[in-house]
Design goal:
The relative contact order is 0.19. The chain contains 3 helices and 4 strands, in the order ββαββαα. The longest helix is centred in the first third of the chain and has 10 residues. The strands form 2 sheets. Strands 1-2 form a two-stranded antiparallel sheet. The protein has one domain. It is of the alpha+beta class. It binds zinc ion (ZN). Zinc ion binds next to loops.
């Protein structure tokens, strides 16, 4: 009998104290990050030294009057209403090729601190 081990990557939320994880195993790190970037319900932004920081649905802003109350609000550089209230966060959003959802207001400070801490 032979045994082959396979490594799989599970994305965990980078928000302090949060134990949220993405319920999908990926064969590579790149694939895991790509999946999160394309997902409407997760936020991915890169630090200035290009490390991904990933945040689960608990930290995202949702549309107030959407029919099912579960639509995230996306960053739009042309629309001040759909930008973070912390202007310093904009440059992280502008670096993304796929538009990313906005954080909840009360999570903006923490997410900015995580993106600016490059360790
Ligand atoms: Zn989380």
């Amino acid at each position: 009998m032979s045994i082959r081990a396979k490594t799989a990557y599970l994305v965990e939320c980078d928000y302090p104290g949060c134990s949220g994880f993405y319920d999908f195993l990926s064969p590579t790190k790149e694939r895991a990050i790509g999946t999160v970037i394309a997902d409407d319900e997760w936020l991915c932004l890169f630090t200035s030294d290009n490390k991904p920081r990933l945040f689960c649905p608990l930290h995202l802003r949702y549309m107030q009057n959407s029919p099912d109350d579960s639509t995230t609000v996306f960053f739009d550089s042309d629309s001040p209403a759909t930008q973070p209230t912390l202007y310093a966060l904009n440059r992280f959003y502008e670096d993304m090729s796929l538009s990313q959802p906005l954080p909840k207001l009360e999570c903006e400070d923490t997410i900015l601190a995580i993106l600016q801490n490059e360790n």
